[in-house]
Each structure stands twice: as structure tokens, then as C-alpha cells.
Amino acid sequence: MDQANELRILKEQELENKSVFNQNHALKITAVTGGKGGVGKSNIALNLALALIAKGERVCILDADFGLANIDVLLGIKPQYNISHVLSGEKKLIDIICTGVNGLKLIPGASGLKQLADLSEEVLHSFAIQARTLGVEFDRLIIDTPAGIANNVLTFLLAATEIITVTSPEPTSITDSYALLKTFKLEHGKAKVMLVMNMCRNNKEGDIVSSRLINICNNFLGFKPEYLGNINLDMKFVNAIRRQRPVIISEPSSVVSAQIVNLADRLKSIESEKADLGNFFTSFKEFVSS
């Protein structure tokens, strides 16, 4: 009854508060993903978000790697609440958003989200309405997805407007990334697909290996991912993780930080669609029920 009443109030607000709900809620939804774990996906998502904030974008990052959520660890913060508290009706979405370094906003992930598979349509619709208002507050939502090609990953990729696939020069990583992109295309994904080559020994290696993967995608999948750039293997990146302080903040003059800034510049220059955040979060029903 409380949830039904809350939904009724939210719907009334949606109809009455024209000054908020008639605004443009569209924003870029950028999913950062990888076919294989351990390629630095979460670290790149976090540092890229901070680079975009430095360039004037209003960015929120969603830690969607449920069960292995670690953006809060990389930031050195301990959220009291997470997205499971919203879906259970205990908290509002706005109540769980944390503020990290340089004003970065984080929606913390949660382990055990599979237990929420029986959520009612009312609760999910309430959540979607709350999420829709965030489209007024942010220009971009960056989603740190789980690695691999499971259904929960595809749910986020198919709902996103942009996909950044993080891979490394290792053959197994390239193979897994290709499998991920192939599955995405077989599901008729429409998002703009981009590629980042991480852990490169040098720029030449990143350019050569990424070119091979792009050509394979073009020849066998019929599309060419946009190459954002590469990030070299650098102990500054590793040490930043250990210190729980993003490298772009702790080592702003390093080569790896400059490469991340370059990724942000390239990302901002690429034209892609925008989406309504409320509509995007309705895909949670598919995720928690999978």
C-alpha cells in the first residue's frame, strides 16, 4: 500500500510539475564494458568520468557490476546505501547517490540483486520515474558493466547510446572482446560502439592490435568500432588503484593521465544519440528477472 501510494504521488508530481518534467531529460548513456575481466574496465570508466567532469560535463557513474561492485573501492568511499535499497523501496534514488572526488556522482552497485527478481511493476515504475528526473541533472550516465556476455551485460549494452569496449593486446582478451561485440550485433544493438586498448607496451602496439580487431569486426560483423585510443601499461595506474585515488587526480601530469584526457576529448567529439534515463531504467525488470 505504501508503494502504491508513493507511485500515485509521483505520477501526480509528473503531471503537475511541468517546470521539471517538461524539460529535456535526454542524456548520453555510455556503457563501459569488456569481454574479459581484468582489463581495467572499472578504472578506465572512473578516470574517464573524472576527465569529462574537468571538461564541463555533468557526469554520474552507475556501478552496474552487481556482485563485484568496486567503483566505491577505487574512490576510497563506503556508501551507506546502494541501488538495492531503492528497488526495495527503502530509499529514494536521490538518497543513495554519493559524491566522490571532484564532484563525481556515483550510484553504488549492490551484491545479491538477483533476490529482487520478483519486484512489482509499481516499484519498477516508481524507480523509472525517479531516474527520469536525473536526466535534468546530468549530461551523461557512465555505466560500469560486468565483464563478459551474460544476459545482464547485454541488457545494459542494448539500452545504452554508446558502448566503450575495453580490451588489451592479449589474444584471449581480443577473442573475448570480439565475442562480446558479435553477440551485441546479433541482438541488433544500435548503440555507437567504440574501442579502447588498455595495457599496451607502447602506442604502436595499441594501434596495430586495435586495427586488427576493427578490421575483423568490419569483415565478419559488418561494422567498424570507433577507435578512441590506447592506454599504456604504467605503474602509476597500478599504484593509484592501491592508493584508492584515481590516477588522473593523483598523477595529473603522467602519460597515462594525458591518454585518458585524450580519450575524453575523442568521446566528446563523437556524435551519438541521447536517451531518456527513465526509459533506460525500465530495462532493470529484464535484468533482475534474468
Give the topology, please:
Elements: H1 2-16, H2 18-21, E1 26-33, H3 41-54, E2 59-63, H4 71-75, H5 83-87, H6 93-96, E3 98-99, E4 105-107, H7 121-137, E5 140-144, H8 151-159, E6 162-167, H9 171-186, E7 192-200, H10 203-220, E8 226-232, H11 235-243, H12 247-250, H13 255-269, E9 275-276, H14 277-281, H15 284-289
Parallel strand pairs: 1-5, 1-6, 2-4, 2-5, 6-7, 7-8
Antiparallel strand pairs: 1-9, 3-4
Structural class: alpha/beta
Domain count = 1
What is the H/E order? HHEHEHHHEEHEHEHEHEHHHEHH
Number of E-type strands:
9
CATH homolog superfamily:
P-loop containing nucleotide triphosphate hydrolases
Strand content: 15-25%
CATH architecture title: 3-Layer(aba) Sandwich
The shape is globular
What's the CATH class, please?
Answer: Alpha Beta
List the uncertain runs: 14-22
The largest pleated sheet is described as:
9 strands, mixed
Distance between the termini: 27 Å
Q: Gyration radius, to the nearest Å?
A: 19 Å
Q: CATH topology, which one?
A: Rossmann fold
Give the integer mean of the pLDDT values. 84
Work out the oligomeric state of the chains in this entry.
single chain
So how many helices?
15
Q: What percent of residues adopt helix (DSSP H or I)?
A: 40-55%
